[in-house]
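Structure tokens
________________
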Amino acid sequence: MKPKHPTTGARLRVVLGPGIALGPGKADLLEAIAETGSISAAGRQLKMSYRRAWLLVEELNGSFQSTLVAAGKGGAHGGGARLTDLGARVLKHFRSMERKTHKAIAADLGALTSYTRSQK
């Protein structure tokens, strides 16, 4: 399986206000929830505890004008979870910012990498 994040480069973390930040971990969680339809399955996919996944979802939901993740109650058939329209838009914008960042720093990153011992 291909690593989710490159071994070289920058990892974008966007601070949107006091105590409100969005980075690759939260974005990966949103993406995994969209893919799996479950907070617990998304957590497992990311090797994250169920509690940690839930805490991050609660933090995300409390940081925006409306919820990013809608979760149903569990039970015999499970509750499931999905990204709201806002959640999908937030994820889309963050991934766009990541792509733009990587493109903008590619030349400088290549130069810096060429100076490291691992490249000789």
About this structure: Residues 85-114 form the longest helix (30 residues).
